[in-house]
Amino acid sequence: MSKNSHKEISILMENLDYNEFFVHYQPIVDATTYEVQWVEALARWNSPIIGTVSPDKFIPVLEEKLHIIPIGMRILKKACKQLEKWHRNGCTNSGISVNVSFLQLQQHNFAEAVVTTLHELGLKPHNLVLEITESVKLRGNEHALQTLKVLKEMGIRISIDDFGTGYNCLKCLQEFEFTSIKIDRSFVANMENSRCKIIIDSIISLGHRMGVKVIAEGVETVEQCDQLKRMGCDMLQGYYFYWPSSAEELSLFLRNDFINKSMVQQEIY
Ligand code: C2E
Ligand code: MG
Ligand code: MG
After folding, report:
1. Which residue has the higher pLDDT, 94 or 203?
2. CATH number for the domain formed by residue range(s) 16-133+150-259
3. Is the C or the N end of the chain the one with fewer CB within 10 Å?
């Protein structure tokens, strides 16, 4: 069996300790000012038997075994608690984004659980962004779409993740008014290819014509950053700005960002 194979991960997940999961965070910045808009929470799994496993490998197994429902909620609660702590410590980043599996949206109490979490922590709905990947499965699923509508009406922002890779993703834009679109990092990685550039350009103008913010993920180089800015992309995320890191490590970065901004404000007045 190859290391970290689907079968090996499935076997390990028979006796899963939810405490083996933790969260890393990566900022999403404004393309013009580089101010942190929000921070994405990314699940991490450190198995005591096979060590660190990539989310691309463990998330599908968590979904298969339905563990994603309780674990996804634990991640959301952890991320919201961390945001509340950052707010309390004076960090200016306004929000947190959490990746949500389609299976969580199908739970009858998902919207209620999210709202209760925000309320208990004294956070505002606009502090939270939910990133939805599986746009394919969303199509035609009335319950999941209704859950998203309820959350959006309350002021929670809903972003479509990995845009451009999902079959039927355009149809999804017709069915639900997302607040932002995140261009998949595979397009950003191949930006020197003229066809990729045309795709990115088209997604940006499509998003803007629909009145939604467009985010590019996977920004690794200054060239990609400059080009995306020239193309009118609203927000950027990637190793060029910051790697996904622990809350402690990121706190320093967020704190510095706050200090820099307050210094700029002092100069103005
Ligand atoms: P995603 O939501 O599209 O997250 C962005 C992924 O891109 C993350 O991978 C991040 O580490 C990676 N990334 C960020 N900047 C760069 C860059 O500049 N270059 C490159 N090459 N990669 C970059 P990660 O952490 O491995 O997560 C993979 C996917 O697993 C996520 O993609 C998301 O779909 C899923 N995932 C992660 N956490 C959760 C979770 O809590 N719940 C659910 N349902 N899915 C999650
Ligand atoms: Mg995401
Ligand atoms: Mg993505």
Report:
1. 203
2. 3.20.20.450
3. C
